[in-house]
Amino acid sequence: MREISRLLKLSRNTVRRILRHADAAAQDAVPFDAATRDRLEAAFARVGGNAVRIQQILADEHALVLPYSTLTRWLRQAGLRTPPQRAGEYHFAPGEEMQHDTSPHRVRIGGNTVKAQCASLVLAYSRRIFVQYYPRFTRFEAKHFLLEAARFMDGVCPLCVIDNTSVILARGSGPDAVMAPEMAAFAAALGFQFRAHAIGHHDRKGRVERPFFWVETNFLAGREFTDFDDLNHQLLRWCREIANAKPKRVLGMSPEAAYVIEKPHLQPLPAALPPVYEVFERIVDLHGFVSVDTVRYSVPERLLAKPVTVYKYAGQIRIVHRGAEIAVHPRLLGVRDGRSVLPDHHRIPSRTPRAPVLEEQLLAGQCALLDRYAAALKQRAYGRGARALRRLLELKRSYPPAPFLAAVEQALKYGLFDLGRLETLILKCVAGDFFALDLPDDSDA
User: Fold this and answer.
1) Which residues, 6+ apart, have CB-to-CB distance to 316 below 8 Å?
2) C-beta separation of 388 from 420 below 8 A
3) What is the 3-state secondary structure (H, E, C) of 47-92?
4) Which CA distances in Å does 337 have to 283, 290, 319, 334?
5) Domain 98-265 has what CATH class?
6) DSSP of 27-42, one letter per residue?
């Protein structure tokens, strides 16, 4: 445009005006008559209002090539597309309101991609944010998160806007919503109350909606975590060093700087904060465990089949029996069908070696050859080998030592452990000593 203005020696505004008139003339080159309007409405109905597909259909099927701006102008003239409406804004005074919401995200933990619930709370004025992840988000996790968020903010606003989640609501929605009594009591203990926005009015808590996309695309991108503790530890540092330290154009400062202005207007926290825990009654199973959220925690063996009280905290599992604490386990998060065993709970039964049978004792220590044969015989015999060793001892006592040991040596050499055949070998060795029979000649007979 500068080159055209220099060559024609016209101002750039004049060149712009001439070009604008040329674009308008080109747009009017295709008449927007009744036939074109019918084609436009038919294509609009076919693709559900997608302007890009309407442009392609008109070009392919009707040879009607239109600029995108002309197409959108015709859609507005035909009443098929309404012009965009100006969006409103919400303005909040310091300490007036905070907003809370959750969103499911895919997170890399321990080398696996798992689904985790991202919980966030934002101060509406300063936009200071606090974010944490949980394997699931029930009322127990909601109370723990709100307590940690109140500590992080070092105060609360008197009003907390939420959506119509059943985690906090008991029934109803929007202005008619009734909060669950335990959640309303917990909020009152911290100094605020919940308010649910009308269904479909998500912009009412826009302060907390937009940061979820930022957390997912900035914090989670390229990061892996060992467990949920590591995930939340890194996320807390990200909130302090990046999310709350980055200047925002709408504020003209960072959320941390705006928080300095808002802090004096927050409701101070009570001196005694409400504890967050759940209580379960369990019977110790015969394996010495109690189960909480599909995870088994060990209990001393003396309490098998006895009732215990289990206290579930955010990071611990405490087990109590008759008023005495008997075990404290670290709570396993994001683990299904896991086990936590403390060192002194389940003793490994020690098996003391049984004394050798009497026959083995009587055979041992007399001859190295006999000891090796007896050990090999015991290894091949059933059970402790008492029956076979008893038979071997009888053979030893029944026959002379020399033929007996000669037969044992020959049996050990050839792997012969049939005691009946061993006795046959012994008899062959002693036949000449005990039964030296000289057969008479035929003439003497």
Assistant:
1) 328, 329, 330, 331
2) no
3) HCCCHHHHHHHHHHHHCCCCCHHHHHHHHHHCCCCCCCCCCCCCCC
4) 18, 12, 19, 10
5) alpha beta
6) HTTS---HHHHHHHHH
User: Nearest 5°: phi and psi at 385?
Assistant: 75, 20
- CA-closest candidate to residue 162, choices 117, 204, 132, 215: 204
For 113, the 3-state DSSP assignment is strand
pTM score of the predicted model: 0.66
Residue-level pLDDT, tens digit, the chain, 445 residues: 889 998 888 898 988 888 887 665 555 556 788 888 898 899 999 888 888 899 999 889 988 888 888 888 888 888 888 777 776 788 899 999 999 999 999 999 999 999 999 999 999 999 999 999 999 999 999 999 999 999 999 999 999 999 999 999 999 999 899 999 999 999 999 999 999 999 888 888 889 998 999 999 999 998 999 999 999 999 999 999 999 999 999 999 999 999 999 999 999 999 999 999 999 999 999 999 999 999 999 999 999 999 999 999 999 999 999 999 999 999 998 888 899 999 989 887 666 677 778 888 888 888 888 888 888 888 888 888 888 888 888 988 888 888 888 888 888 888 888 888 888 888 888 876 655 545 455 544 4
409 CB neighbour count, 10 Å cutoff: 15
Cβ atoms < 10 Å from Cβ of 130: 25
Phi/psi for 91 (5° steps) reads -120, 135
Q: What does the domain layout of the chain look like in residue ranges? A: 2-77, 98-265, 278-340, 358-434
